[in-house]
Amino acid sequence: MSAESYDIVIVGGGTGGAFAAATAAQAGLATVILERKPPEAAGHIACGDAIKGTATFPDVMDLEYLKDESFTNQSITRALFENPSSNDDIEIEFRGPGAVLDRKRYGEIILEEAERLGAAIHYNTVVQDVLQTADGTVTGVTGKRNGSTVTYEAELVVDAAGALSLLQDKADFSGTFFDTNVRYSQFCSAYREVIEVDEPVEWHDAIVFKPTEELGYLWYFPRTPTRINVGVGFQMDQPEMQMISTIEADIEARDDLVNPTVIDKLGAAVPTRRPYDSAVAPGYMAVGDAAGHVNPTTGGGIPGAAKSAVWAMRRAIDALDAGDVSESALWAYNRDVMTDFGKHFAAIDCYNIWGTAHEVEELTEIVSAVPGQHLADAMSGADGKAMPLSLKLRTIKDTYGHWDQLIQLANVRTKAHELAAHYERYPATPGGFPAWQSVRDSILDEVYEISGADPKY
Ligand SMILES: Cc1cc2nc3c(=O)[nH]c(=O)nc-3n(C[C@H](O)[C@H](O)[C@H](O)COP(=O)(O)OP(=O)(O)OC[C@H]3O[C@@H](n4cnc5c(N)ncnc54)[C@H](O)[C@@H]3O)c2cc1C
Fold first, then answer.
1. How far is ligand 1, taken at its centre, from the CA of residue 163, in Å?
2. How far apart are CA 173 and CA 185, in angstroms?
3. Where is pLDDT greater, at 314 or 374?
């Protein structure tokens, strides 16, 4: 058995792990990424690969190089929502162009950049357990590297091991506020294929969505006009969905996908929930999927993983400088997350909760009847743009029969705004957390009451 010692040990070489390592190594900390996969498979991660562009990423590595090497489609300007029960597609224009990546190449570049900036990467290293002192402080991890048992001691362990991280099963978080209220039902099971087609698709400037029967959605994200990522997901509190056959049937039914050939396939779980209430414990920080940093309506988690990893490491650098890795010393990271994307994700999770209390046909009819941009604004919380009277009248006519649900939706929206404002008041120290959490839970109780949904947390 071998033992090694670092300032920072990062478990997982995905987006969170690579951005954390780049930040810590640049600050001169002895940093290692432990990745269970071999080097040739690192970066091969289940993903739809759609992002907003380089603005998605904190500027801690060479983003121009990343873009040149891995952004295969930089001309995504709109989202298309296909309505399976009518031909009335909803189109939403983006404010700025988005991109679709080659996820494998992207994964290789971010690891190459982390290494260039000074981090070590140990591939073929499967972390199996967490080391803790008697008072609960995390002091390292153990695992198998190329089959041999290894111990890594660290001032701080970063959990970047993705959704349903094994580290959180192993660590004892009692006596801390680390969020352990995490259940399978708060996750989405997702699967994607990459297909090649003979003829370019017309919608190569769009990401395309379509609802499925199981309260999930199917999507097409074009990497190029002839290479398309197609995927599907369903919330794990719903009956199991046959994801491969659902994709096959949809591809088969489309006449704009000519002679499709599958060139890659992969699946994984995605946390479609609010961010963890706290993602820190003594000597331990969780980032990315391991802390629920995913947009709970779209499943987009690359930006949350990259940003949270950098914010965590900036707080960790200060904590290590002060020689204090207690929960209090790391706590400011929670506030960084909650007052930024955390408040938005917690707010839009209210719509997911509302959705679980309705049938998919009902939701499709409502969604189809409300003009696209207004629906997007309602869900993103954007204010200010009133719906023109003519549209209002058309909406009233088209939504006839669903007014109760629309009133519910409006009430949920009010609560979502209240929730986001409450996340702005996330406490600066652990001492204020129980009171903050209690108010947050009472807002959510009202969301359950309005929507008739079963409690999610
Ligand atoms: C089908 C699908 C489609 C998606 N589409 C999009 C999209 O279009 N846009 C978007 O922004 N997001 C999308 N996401 C979400 C996005 O992929 C994740 O949010 C993002 O990858 C999270 O990054 P991460 O670094 O936290 O975790 P991951 O990328 O999952 O990385 C975790 C790493 O940890 C390693 N690891 C795990 N356990 C151990 C262990 N015990 N020891 C050592 N190593 C370990 C894994 O091998 C992996 O390399 C999608 C997800 C899925 C499943």
1. 7
2. 21
3. 314
* CB neighbour class for 165 (10 Å; exposed up to 12, middle 13-18, buried from 19): buried
What are the pLDDT digits (tens) for 329-342? 999 999 999 999 99
If one residue of 52, 289, 298 were mutated to test the ligand 1 pocket, choosing by the most ligand atoms within 8 A of its CB, it would be: 289
Ligand 1 centre to CA of 322 (Å) is: 32
Tell how far the Cα of 26 is from the centroid of ligand 1, in angstroms.
Answer: 23
**CA-proximal residue: ligand 1, atom 16 (nearest):** 301
- Compute the distance between CA of residue 396 and CA of residue 402 in angstroms, rounded to an integer: 9
Closest CA to 350 of 252, 400, 423: 423
How remote is the CA of residue 289 from the centroid of ligand 1, in Å? 7
Q: Which atom of ligand 1 is nearest to the CA of 18?
A: 25
What the block records as the tokens of 231 is 């995927």
CA distances, 262 to each of 101, 139, 196 (Å) = 17, 44, 7
- Pairwise CA distance, residues 50 & 283, whole Å: 33
What digits encode the pLDDT tens for the residues 66-93? 999 999 999 999 988 887 776 678 888 8
Res 157 pLDDT > 70: yes
| Token pair belonging to 363 | 């939701």
